Amino acid sequence: MTDTPLLKVSGLSKFYGSRIGCKDVCFDLWPGEVLAIVGESGSGKTTLLNCLSTRLMPTTGSVEYRMRDGNFRDLYHMSEAERRFLMRTDWGFVHQNPADGLRMTVSAGANVGERLMAVGDRHYGKIRETASDWLTRVEIGTDRIDDQPRAFSGGMRQRLQIARNLVTGPRLVFMDEPTGGLDVSVQARLLDLVRGLVNDLGLSAIVVTHDLAVARLLSHRMMVMKDGHVIEHGLTDRVLDDPREPYTQLLVSSILQV
Amino acid sequence: MTDLATYNFAYLDEQTKRMIRRAILKAIAIPGYQVPFASREMPMPYGWGTGGVQVTAAIIGPEDVLKVIDQGADDTTNAVSIRAFFQKVANVAVTTHTKDATIIQTRHRIPEHKLAEGQILVYQVPIPEPLRFLEPRETETRKMHALEEYGLMHVKLYEDIAHNGRISKTYAYPVKVAGRYVMDPSPTPKFDNPKMHRSEALQLFGAGREKRIYAVPPYTDVVSLDFEDHPFEIQTFDKPCALCGAENVYLDEVVLDDKGGRMFVCSDTDNCEDRREHGHVGAMLAPAKEAAE
């Protein structure tokens, strides 16, 4: 890890009229670090994630990102073209529902290759080679390369979505409940895969989840949100093993034990 | 008093023509960009070329000579009715000869005879948006055009190659105009795409239902999209035209009977007739001619 953060967030707030989406969020994210945002439904997790990933305009505050040239740029002072370019090259976004992040009517190979073609790759053979390489890395058989994602199971779709996002070698990946809607054994496999990829590629990631087990497995640090405020922030193991806030204690103690 | 019942020259009123001309000028200034315009109701159904008719009506003058083709033919319903329409409302001279025409309104073809400076080709366009079936949201496709995000167009071509081993799109083949906008050349066969590249004639596109006008000015680069290892190719035909023996032209397949009999003839009827007048004879016309002699 280096001395300079990848992402600097300060005073970030989003109001929906008089209602609070999230308020006064400040944190830094370092390269190679995975940050989990946890909290109950309606606590502002997804609002915060959308504000960070430029999908939603925050009311106040700034989000600065260290570009590949080493300079920090405020995301909301960039042109839309630059923001969109950043989103499809240096960033990834994994949706909870794979149908939101995939093109369901084009083949798996084209789904993975889309980002490559978007940045100007014009050699069919090479695009296909890269796509089949990435399918292998996310444990999808290369014989499925010409199948549409609608013929895939939920777990496969989610893995395809991850491959599609990682193909351009992003440095930062946002994940919104990446294991939501999957059964437990598939969840475990997916988490294992994501953890491996994050380690291998040195990715930074911001993972939104309501599942503390996911946070425990994937993340280095975590933030606990309630009613739009970050109420606790620290190393994952510290927060889960020694929660300080009454709400976090409640959250941790309410995990079902089998 | 009798004047009240008559139409203005070329059917449209002058204010409407002015509005369409402004859209056309803007379209010419930004090659390949789809300019919205207030498309009018025309006395024919959508899909019959209401966009093309409005463009033609806005640019036609009493001195113009009009040619109208439908799938390359001068004598099909659509061509005949639009030609008759302009004869009636503008009283202009009409022709079937490509080289004599100053304005050529077309559906689905570009004439085989090379167009010259001063001629205007008006296309009837059903769906002007090349990204339409890839991205259903108009707000999104406009943004993609504005920010030049055309990766999706290649996704379509990728899919073609993955499933068919080659780019199987044969008509409405997407092109990039002047290195900037990706454009749908209306449902012309891709055979005609190379004719658009640096054409001497002005090319105007009108989509009546979708309310869009776009243009390719003369001498503008029009490049068909492709992959480095799967370059753009046009259709080829095994046999020449059965009537005039022309090669390297676009042919229509005509079914002759219910026993598998078929012939391939020029889709451009004017070109075919012209060649026959100059003594060219195809395989199916030759025996008839010998018999007559």
Describe what this molecule looks like in 3D:
With 258 residues, chain A is of the alpha/beta class. Chain A has helices at residues 45-52, 80-89, 98-101, 108-118, 124-137, 154-166, 184-201, 212-218, 236-241, 246-253, and strands at 7-16, 19-29, 34-39, 60-66, 72-74, 91-94, 172-176, 204-209, 221-226, 229-235. Chain A has a six-stranded mixed sheet, sandwiched between helices. A four-stranded antiparallel sheet of chain A has the order 2-1-4-5, covered by helices on one side. In chain A, α4 (108-118) packs across α5. The termini of chain A are far apart. The mean pLDDT of chain A is 91. With 293 residues, chain B is an alpha/beta fold. Helices cover 28% and strands 17% of the residues of chain B. In chain B, α1 packs across α2 (50-59). Chain B is globular and about 55 Å long. The termini of chain B are far apart. The A-B interface holds A 80-81, 84, 103, 106-107, 109-110, 113-115, 117-119, 122-125, 127-128, 145-146 and B 143, 147, 149, 151-152, 154-156, 158-159, 161-163, 226-230.
Describe the structure concisely for a colleague:
The complex is a heterodimer of chains A (258) and B (293). Chain A is an alpha/beta fold. Chain A contains 10 helices and 10 strands.
Number of strands of chain B: 12
Amino-to-carboxy terminus distance of chain A: 37 Å
Largest interface: A-B, 22 and 18 residues
Order of strands, widest sheet of chain B: 1-9-8-5-4-2-3
Query: What is the percentage of strand-forming residues of chain B?
Result: 15-25%
Topology:
The complex is a heterodimer of chains A (258) and B (293).
Chain A: E1 7-16, E2 19-29, E3 34-39, H1 45-52, E4 60-66, E5 72-74, H2 80-89, E6 91-94, H3 98-101, H4 108-118, H5 124-137, H6 154-166, E7 172-176, H7 184-201, E8 204-209, H8 212-218, E9 221-226, E10 229-235, H9 236-241, H10 246-253
Parallel strand pairs in A: 3-8, 3-9, 6-7, 7-8
Antiparallel strand pairs in A: 1-2, 1-4, 4-5, 9-10
Helix pairs in contact in A: 4-5, 4-6, 5-6, 6-7
Chain B: H1 14-29, E1 35-36, H2 50-59, E2 65-70, H3 77-90, E3 93-94, E4 103-107, E5 120-124, H4 138-146, H5 151-164, E6 175-177, E7 181-183, H6 193-196, E8 202-207, E9 212-216, E10 222-224, E11 251-255, E12 262-266, H7 269-277, H8 286-292
Parallel strand pairs in B: 2-3, 2-4, 4-5, 5-8
Antiparallel strand pairs in B: 1-9, 6-7, 6-10, 8-9, 11-12
